[in-house]
Each structure stands twice: as C-alpha cells, then as structure tokens.
Amino acid sequence: MVSGIVTAILLVVFLGGWAWAWSPRRHRDFEEAAQLPLDEDMRVEGTGENER
User: Fold this and answer.
1) Which Pfam family name is an example for this entry (predicted)?
2) Whether pTM exceeds 0.70
3) How far is residue 34 CA from its own chain's centroid?
C-alpha cells in the first residue's frame, strides 16, 4: 500500500517536472543556457588567452 502511494507521488512529481521543462515559457531560458558553453569558447578565443 505504501509503495503504491510513493509510486503515485513520484509519478506526479515526474510529470510536473516534465511539464515545467517543456512549457513554452521556459524555451528561451533553456536556449540561452544551451548557448553558454559556446559563448564561453568564443570569449576565450577572442581574448587570445588559449593561444600558445
């Protein structure tokens, strides 16, 4: 009985997180976060810090 309740709670939490991640309001934030590693590479290349 308890394991069924825990499973149901975890399912609701999972679906809530999934809905949050795929909501259209979050799309721009995730796109910006996805570009962060590339932006960092461009800044480092532009400053000449990693040239030897």
Assistant:
1) FixQ
2) no
3) 8
| Per-residue pLDDT, 15 | 98
In order of 26, 30, 44, 45, 47, the CA distances from 23 in angstroms are 6, 11, 33, 34, 37
Task: Give residue-wise pLDDT tens across range 3-41.
Answer: 999 999 999 999 999 999 999 999 999 999 999 988 876
Domain ranges of the chain: 2-47
Residue 11 CA to residue 17 CA, distance in Å, equals 10
Q: Which residue has the tokens 């799309």?
A: 27
